[in-house]
Structure formats: C-alpha cells, structure tokens
Amino acid sequence: MCKLLRTAATKYEPLLEVLPRKAKELAGRGVDIVQADINDEASLLKAFEGSTAIFGMTDFFEPFVVHGYEKAIEIEATQGKNLARAASKTLTLKHYIWSTLPNGEKLTNGKWRIPHFVAKNIVDDFIKQDKSLLAKTTFFWITFYANNFQYPIFTPNLLKTSGKYVQLSSAAADLPIKTIGSPSGNIGIFALAILKQPHITLPGRFVCAHVEDTTTEKLLQDWSAATGKPSEYVEVSLDSFSKIWPGWGQEMGSMMKMWDELRERAWSGEEGILVKEDLGIGDAHFVGVKQAVAEMDWKALL
Fold first, then answer.
1. Which residue, 146, 175, 177, 190, could crosslink 171 as a Cys pair with Cβ 3.0–4.6 Å?
2. Predicted confidence (pLDDT) per residue in 93-112, tens digit
C-alpha cells in the first residue's frame, strides 16, 4: 500500500512508528519517512506539512487490551479527531481518506453497539461538521480481512477426537460476508483509485472496499482448501463464545451476531456507496481469501 500511495502523492507519511527494517525498505523506494504521535495534534500537523493526500486510520484494539471498552472508545475517538483537525489545518491537502466502519448502532436502531465501530462513527460525525474537511474527505470502509483467520477467535482449532479443525462462531454458517481478501495490496488498489478519481470520490463519498462476496462457511472452506486441513463450522451462542474468549469474544462475537441480523444491510446506511466497479477496478488483480490464506505462515498456529 505504501508504494501505491507514494505513486499517487509526493510522499507517504506513516503515523505509527515503523520498524527499522521496514523503514529502510520504504526509504529505498523513495518514500519519505516521518514519525508523529497520534495523541499529539501538533506533531501530526508537523508530519502532514506539504502533504496533498492523507490516509487516516486508528486502532481500537491496542487501548482495548489495556483499558477495556469504554476507555478505548474515548482514546480512539480522540486520536481520530486529532487526525481530522491536523488534516483540516494542512493547507496543501487535496484529499483525506478516513478509514471507518458503518454505523451499526444506527442500522440496528440502537440494539447493537459494537465498541470498535463506535469511535470511528464519532469521528465520522466530527468530520461532517467541518465543511472544509468534508469537501476533501472520502470515507473508506474496509471489509473482512482474510488474515483475521490468524486471530485466536477466528482460527480453527484441532479437535483431536474428530481429526477436524473446528471454527466456532456466534453467526450462522450462511451469513453473507464481504471481504477485502488480502489487505496487503488490495487496500492500496482501492486507495489509489480513490485518489485518482476525486470527481467521483469527493466530496464526502463512502467507498466499500470488498473483492469477494462469500459466507462464513465458505470462508472456512477456502481456509481448508488453502491449508489442506479438514474443518467444520460450528455455531454457538454469543454467551458461550464470550466465555471462551473473554473480552474479545464479546467484541467480535457481537459484531458477527449483528452482521447475522443485518445480513445484506451490514455495509449500508449511507447514500451512494461506491464499490470496486464504480472505481473502475472491478478487474484488478486482487488477492482473494484462498490465495491470501495460502500465503500465510500457519506453523505456529496449527
């Protein structure tokens, strides 16, 4: 993604500290590397100097592990607002891509409040109140990652007495899933297309980045095909799922349960949502779920 963004703009400026090896690789490609503190608006403003395009994203899960749900929402919302304010004050800015998620609380009339969605939705509203920044903003929804399979709550586990790898889920096997496939590369293809076509991605348009329509069970079948491991999809209650993985189970299990209720409406709620065909990248060489899983290292997990 860094290479694609560098091609589209004069420089790519990561907001998180880059490991020395990775930084050297990027620098070798002509990318200017700067460091900023996402909790410090002034440092972000300094890092953004001269930028014409900014890709803003925040991480709910790092503060969630340390502080729990509510504090993590507060921290992430503050970080997102810091990014937005710094972007708004960057005089050279032409395009701001904000990585966010649909408003599940609104879609379900308040029934489901998924913490890692909430802070991003708070920032959405913050950006919409800044008319100048809104005119330069594309709201970017990135769908289910193939590498979610490497997170414990999604990783199929071997049930020795059956010889199968069992994936537990709070959602039905036929739940429709939109997936980005491999986030590495695929996200960059979308981001570059967004930046190249401001006449359709601005002002304030929403882009849903997905490359495959599948189901929860089909995702597992693709995992089996890629790894050669026999598997079985087993639906369990949200309560049971949460007990198996305290904290994480409630967070991600609730998301899956909400999607199960919303079905085809899971990625909706905004006017004129753009997809890959609208951006002219319907035939791009995306890396799908099966290929992405095949390229992952499973030695430590299986």
1. 175
2. 999 999 999 999 999 999 99
Half-sphere exposure of 69 (CA within 13 A, CB side): 12
Contacts 24+ apart (CB under 8 A), 199-203: 200/274, 200/278, 200/279, 201/95, 201/138, 201/274, 201/279, 202/95, 202/135, 202/136, 202/137, 202/138, 203/134, 203/135, 203/136, 203/137
The torsion angles phi and psi of 140, rounded to 5 degrees, stand at -120, 115
Match 């800044």 to its residue by tokens.
130
Kindly state the tokens that stand for 154: 């999604």
Element (H, E) at 124: helix 115-129
Q: How far apart are CA 127 and CA 133, in angstroms?
A: 7
Q: What is the pTM of this model?
A: 0.92
What's the rounded Cα separation, in Å, for the pair 113 and 135? 29
| Amino acid in position 39 | N
CA–CA separation, 252 vs 74, rounded Å?
19
Structure tokens, 257: 């349960």
- Specify the amino acid at residue 109: N
Instruction: Please provide the DSSP assignment of 138-149 as one string.
Output: EEEEE-EEGGGG
Instruction: List C-alpha distances in Å: 233 to 82, 152, 165.
Output: 41, 15, 9
Pairing of strands 95-100, 53-56: parallel
Do 218 and 149 contact (CB within 8 A), yes or no?
no
pLDDT of residue 283: 83
